[in-house]
């Protein structure tokens, strides 16, 4: 992908994160990405809608590179990988100073009810994320209680993290997502057998795990 195209996508992603998709115009993107005019924009994208779809795809690929890749690391214990993944989400939000939230949750809240194309693409994003978590939980099954439902637990993890990012954005306080991350680890630890918890939750927190 050309540098100029990436420049446009990154500029659009920043604007959409701040203003939302509807309130971000092609003119805004042209100005923010320092293009010479609309003809230059349309050389790379046929429409604002296509731009939005590409922004969503790029945001997920970046998330997959920095976050989901941890879930697939074969040299690390599965439960430890889960903890590292949750930590990575916190780190990403801390780097933004508590601003921005989740690009997937933000677009879902704005567009899912009014644009079927966005709804379907966002649904695919969440399903890809859930699939990675389910695979990890399946790999960790010897460490988990027999009655653990990987489908439900993976959805719960996503819903918790998405909610944490939204609350952090509203409060502009990274401490919100940090605290919820600790509680989420404790909740997941409740589904683990004795001996597996320590790879997910720091030793100092074990006393608080039910």
What does this entry show, briefly?
The protein is mostly helical and 210 residues long. It has nine helices and no strands. It starts with a helix and ends in a 21-residue tail after the last helix.
Query: How much is the average pLDDT?
Result: 85
Helix count, per DSSP? 9
- Percent of residues in helices comes to 55-70%
CATH superfamily of the largest domain: Tetracycline Repressor, domain 2
Low-confidence stretches: 203-210
Describe this structure in words.
By secondary structure, the protein is mostly helical. It folds into two domains: 1-45, Arc Repressor Mutant, subunit A (Orthogonal Bundle), CATH 1.10.10.60; 49-208, Tetracycline Repressor, domain 2. The protein is built from nine helices and no strands. α1 packs across α2, α1 (3-19) crosses α4 (48-71) and α7 crosses α8. The protein is elongated. Residues 203-210 have low confidence and may be disordered.
Topology, please?
Layout: H1 3-19, H2 26-32, H3 38-44, H4 48-71, H5 78-95, H6 103-111, H7 116-139, H8 150-171, H9 174-189
């Amino acid at each position: 992908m050309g540098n100029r195209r990436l420049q446009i996508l990154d500029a659009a992603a920043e604007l959409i994160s701040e203003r939302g998709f509807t309130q971000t115009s092609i003119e805004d993107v042209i100005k923010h990405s320092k293009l010479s005019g609309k003809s230059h924009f349309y050389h790379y994208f046929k429409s604002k809608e296509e731009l939005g779809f590409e922004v969503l795809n790029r945001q997920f690929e970046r998330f997959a590179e920095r976050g989901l890749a941890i879930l697939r690391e074969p040299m690390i214990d599965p439960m430890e990988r889960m903890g590292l993944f949750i930590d990575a989400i916190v780190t990403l939000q801390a780097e933004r100073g508590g601003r921005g939230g989740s690009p997937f949750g933000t677009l879902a809240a704005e567009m899912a009810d009014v644009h079927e194309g966005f709804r379907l693409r966002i649904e695919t994003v969440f399903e890809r994320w859930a699939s990675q978590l389910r695979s990890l939980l399946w790999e960790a099954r010897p460490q988990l209680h027999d009655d653990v439902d990987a489908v439900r637990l993976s959805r719960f993890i996503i819903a918790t993290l998405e909610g944490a990012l939204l609350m952090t954005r509203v409060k502009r306080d990274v401490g919100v997502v940090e605290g919820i991350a600790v509680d989420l680890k404790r909740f997941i630890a409740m589904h683990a057998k004795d001996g597996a918890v320590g790879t997910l939750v720091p030793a100092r927190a074990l006393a608080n795990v039910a």
